[in-house]
Amino acid sequence: MVFHPDLHRRRSMRLRDYDYVGAGAYFVTVCAWRRECLFGDGVDGGVLLNDVGVVVRDEWLRTAVIRPNIKLDEFVVMPNHFHAIFWITDPVGATRWVAHDRDAWSQTRATQRVAPTAGPRSGSVGAIIGQFKSAATKRINTLRHDIDNPVWQRNYHEHVIRGDRDLQAVRQYIVDNPAKWELDVNHPDRV
Known about the structure:
Blueprint lengths: L23 E8 L8 E4 L2 E4 L1 H16 L3 E8 L3 E8 L2 H10 L1 H6 L17 H20 L12 E4 L3 H13 L15
Antiparallel strand pairs: 1-5, 1-6, 2-3, 4-5
Helix pairs in contact: 1-4
């Protein structure tokens, strides 16, 4: 078999030349590994979270606690994916906080970078979601006593929210998502 460099590259959904560290509202969807129902069950138009789903919810809530420049908005943990809106409110303040308050930062158990990497820019949407996924994975793998099974699919889907109508539509989509679980494209019967 001959390796073709473009064979395994995914086309980026990111907006070209958009600053994903900038203040604003973002909608993200993160899917469980192979879209398996790891986080709970759809029950009577809602979602009954299991222990793993509770970890996902709790780690998302911690996101705003350990990053004072992040404001959480509407979110939902579904049986095999997660939807959330969050706001980056002060990207410059976030950098100052991390750089000048090392004791508070280290108490959050967040990973500190030691050397430059090719990963997402610090404080960006990609870094925030990557850190959330990493923290949730560590806790879930400890809970499952299994470090070899992945929790998340690679990457995530994001949407830059542009205006009040867009924000209201995305909020409504998240609120309605549990009631529409049987019809959801991420439902195991539809994947």
